[in-house]
Write a structure and sequence with these properties.
alpha/beta; Aspartate Aminotransferase, domain 2; Aspartate Aminotransferase, domain 1; 2 domains; 4-stranded mixed sheet; 3-stranded antiparallel sheet; 8 helices; 7 strands; 15% strand
């Protein structure tokens, strides 16, 4: 929408970002560089190298735009996300989705006052959108208060992640998950959807993900751990996965 030139760097490769910035400047590119990433990626469950990206942005006097959709409420002090350590920096803007861990709807943008004022006065998608209801504003506020004090819930989710590492990942030869998202990459669409159907028949709400959502050849089962399940559920899912993948 800004009509700025955009290029894609290699996933989580800070050197790739650096090379693209250097090439842009060498070709006479002007203006401020914006580096946009997710802090936690929803399909692989991997984390962006935020500290190194922050250093790169500072080196090139650039801005860092961080999407905390899957990190808000789950990571960081008070559930402020993986970018919490960058809060307050003049060149960092964070987007916090309210419709995932917070359980409501909408989103919050945090950043320098200059950028927030610009969005309020110039962002068409904001200006011409219907305002949220007062009820939803209260619900978001209550969710923020709850997640700030929810270290016990975050600890429980971390324990479930460790359980998944033992009951799901280790038997299948997969690396331990770094987040609540556990991908089981099966490759072909047919194999993935058959496995998903078998798991659903067994009572597990596990969905198959296939192209174009993920690249061809990387169709997968996407397991998302929540506090709606317990250790016994994860152990049972691990046994069922081993059975259908023999």
């Amino acid at each position: 929408m800004s009509k700025a030139a955009a290029v894609f760097a290699r996933h989580n490769d800070v050197q790739s970002f650096s090379d693209l910035i250097t090439a842009f400047r060498a070709e006479g590119g002007k203006g401020r560089i914006w580096i946009a990433v997710e802090t936690l990626y929803s399909m692989d469950g991997d984390l962006a190298p935020l500290a190194d990206l922050a250093k790169l942005a500072a080196k090139h006097h650039g801005m860092l735009l961080l999407d905390e959709a899957h990190g808000t409420g789950v990571f960081g002090p008070g559930g402020r996300g993986l970018s919490a350590g960058l809060d307050g920096l003049h060149n960092v803007v964070t987007l916090h989705t309210c419709g995932k861990a917070m359980g409501v709807e909408g989103a919050l943008i945090c950043g320098p006052r200059l950028h927030i004022d610009y969005l309020i006065n110039r962002a068409r998608a904001f200006i011409f959108s219907t305002a949220p209801s007062p009820l939803m504003a209260v619900a978001v506020s209550a969710a923020l208060d709850r997640i700030e004090e929810a270290s016990d819930l975050r600890d429980r989710l971390k324990t479930l992640r460790q359980d998944a590492a033992e009951a799901i990942c280790a038997p299948l030869g997969l690396p331990a998950p770094r987040s609540q998202i556990v991908p089981v990459i099966l490759g072909t669409d047919a194999r993935t959807m058959a496995a998903a159907a078998a798991l659903q028949d067994a009572g597990f709400d596990v969905r198959g993900i296939r192209p174009p959502t993920v690249p061809p050849g990387t169709s997968r089962l996407r397991i998302s751990l929540t506090l709606n399940v317990g250790r016994a559920d994860i152990a049972a899912l691990g046994r069922e996965l081993q059975r259908i993948m023999r």
